[in-house]
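FORM 7B: Structural annotation worksheet

SECTION A. Query
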Amino acid sequence: MIQSMTGFGKATLELPTKKITIEVKSLNSKQLDLSARIPSVYKEHELNIRGLIGRRLERGKVDFAIYVENTGKETTSQINQNILEAYYSQIKESSEKLGISVPADWFQVLLRLPDVLKYEAQEADEEEWNQLQATINEALDKLIEFRKQEGAMLQKLFTQKIENIKRLQTEIEPYESERVEKVKSRIIEALEKIEKFDYDKNRFEQEMIFYIEKLDINEEKSRLTNHLKYFLETIDSGNGQGKKLGFISQEIGREINTMGSKSNHAQMQQIVVQMKDELEQIKEQVLNVL
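SECTION B. Predicted structure
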């Protein structure tokens, strides 16, 4: 079964002093385009994290983030005394100039200002890293499951569109012989309108046969049938088939276009336009296939 490149996964890890949340989401892309937000405490493991994501997700525009929330009583944060005093002086000076009352609770205001609190990052030990790695895999598992569900919907859509093209192809057949007779009659009528014009009927028949052979679409129909069959076989063969399906859809389009250029018949051309519409919807969604 095919997979979509669209997905989302989230997992959390509860530790004695902090809560870690892993979020990962992906969209379609020709290759792996990974953007990772990793706190400094886990920076030493960034290459391992990127490698893990690349092996499991293969392709897609991937946004990965680790969020850390301190929950323990002990804190690694410290007050930056110099910055706090600078804020205090500036606020007091502005208060005097503008005639605005100073805050009733100085600390409540000052501690919320940027860079007043500084955090001392502590490197994760091996046990914490192992737990974090398991949580990352859990988030990736959920994203992959999401991709499979999206892939199932895409597969259903592709099957429906391919069957529609097959049906439209059969609707062309009744017009083929009718088209040949119309072309032949039109040419004869045009010749008969020319006064005192004589022509070699045997040569005319030969040229007519040659011309009608150029309008024959049996070869295109045969190749189109094979391409449609190959497309369905490919989506049943497993994931990682997005690029291959793109190539097959291009071949399908080539045969449909040739049939349209050879049709020389209004009803046939209308059917070809409907086939193109079905194929265009396939091409749009193939871009989302892993």
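SECTION C. Observations
The longest strand covers residues 60-70. Residues 161 and 278 are 6 Å apart (CA to CA).

SECTION D. Sign-off
Analyst initials: ____
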